[in-house]
């Protein structure tokens, strides 16, 4: 069977995750496919002189959604991310007025753009060579109730801007709607944890994934969880970093309790010893944090 | 010359960092010494039945202070941390009422204690073996103006609870007072980034350091900076995580600008591509965050 390619142009893309979404393709449980994505700014920034005066209404196009056969509310959608390949000759790092961690700093230009040309396995930032280490910025599923812009992360995933969303990681999402409705885009050729200026090196990518359904899981997930091979990490979004790390910690306690014969108190104390809290991004409408536990201490129940 | 040992008992310790501090020892510029520390809870927790009903008034004893000859306000104090060795047979992970990230969770016991016995290079948490990976929880210098409990981190260092404060790291502190007045304690045998329950595995340690003074530095530091060999990281404390990561990002921009021919705007965009924001702790009176830049992109000017 040839591998299905789901493309931004020919198949379709969304700017919102919603309860009701029309699939552009329906994948079999366990099917491998390739998802082509466009950069988050729809190819509008091509030189350093292309400035972003404001965040566009339509940003972070997410290719899809892809329905997965058999996925029902309460299930867990498993997305094995096999490879993320940059599919254009440049990325772009951008900041814009009213956007980014240091948006009130008068000594920093808002807007500002630096195009990062691709040179083999690296991108060039003003003469500094940075290895390409791709990240899928926006990845998620149909929501339970609300309609959410692809600029916003939440329990359905969305704009998580999480550096672990890359080749080699298996991501798990709660299924809120029949078919799950997976969509992704907003990739970066490289990104710092935090995404301080509001972007990484935004770039189009081809993403190889295998999707499958965990039916009636012993332990469900309320929010995304990733398994990088080296660590299991809960991924939580909220209004403040304090609220996000609290959710991420709670989610990890539930997984530790399911995996070990630990009380909640023991899981809490243990979580304070290994791995720990990480920052995904601090610049989107909700911020995103992780709680990591090294693989030797935590196996997922699915 | 035999190596000076500065001990908790015989020499002395403090529970506050202040503008005026009396040194228990004066080290030469460039001198190597060993600092002995006691666990943060003054040996009062020895079994799982020893519970912490409230945070004691005197907590996080910091051995010292050690004056360093020639250190003047405006200088930078360089502390090469060569080794941190656990010096007792157990650590203890503790939570207490009104303390810790999930202090309002009724399903978690507050207080709770788990003693972690040392077994060679590991500690035991309820049958789970965790490698010893020591952290100096509290390390800092005399403050500019305020008197600050050793429970609180700030620009002088203090209760930074930063996992990078370990053997192999060089830490830099602003010098606010003559002699700098370095003190440290509150070590952990292991700790997660975040220190969610309020402690790691609190333990006494022997710490080998070499102290030296960077006089009239080309670029000063307003807050602690660490160089782990793999990355340079700013370390900033504030009321909220949002404020702490903003300070940490600003400090890294200043260092990137000093090291590269970059404008502040370029440093900001570049900081959004590599390394990134990290969580030190979210449980102390001020919270602490870091901004890391891999060593290949940032060398300190001292």
Describe, in plain words, how this protein is organized in 3D.
Two copies of one chain form a homodimer. By secondary structure, the first copy, chain A, is mostly beta strands. Helices cover 9% and strands 38% of the residues of chain A. The first copy, chain A, is globular. The mean pLDDT of chain A is 97. Chains A and B meet through strand 8, strand 9, helix 1, helix 2 and strand 21 of A and strand 8, strand 9, helix 1, helix 2 and strand 21 of B.
Query: How many structurally independent domains of chain A?
Result: 1
Oligomer: homodimer
- Which class of chain A in CATH terms? Mainly Beta
> So, the CATH homologous superfamily of chain A?
Acetamidase/Formamidase-like domains
- Mean model confidence by pLDDT of chain A: 97
Spans of at least 5 consecutive residues with low confidence of chain A? none
CATH topology of chain A: Jelly Rolls
User: Largest interface: which pair?
Assistant: A-B, 60 and 60 residues
The count of helical stretches of chain A stands at 2
Question: Could you tell me the strand content of chain A as a percent range?
Answer: 35-45%
**What is the gyration radius of chain A calculated from CA atoms?**
19 Å
The beta-strand count of chain A equals: 22
- Write the CATH architecture name of chain A: Sandwich
Largest beta-sheet characterization of chain A:
9 strands, mixed
Which shape of chain A, going by the Cα principal axes?
globular
Series of H and E elements of chain A: EEEEEEEEEEEEEEEEEEEEHHEE
Task: Tell me roughly what share of residues is in helical segments of chain A.
Answer: under 10%
For the record, give the distance between the C-alpha atoms at the N and C termini of chain A, rounded to a whole number: 27 Å
Helix/strand/pairing class of chain A, anyone?
mainly beta
The neighbouring-strand order within the major sheet of chain A is 1-5-18-7-16-19-20-22-21
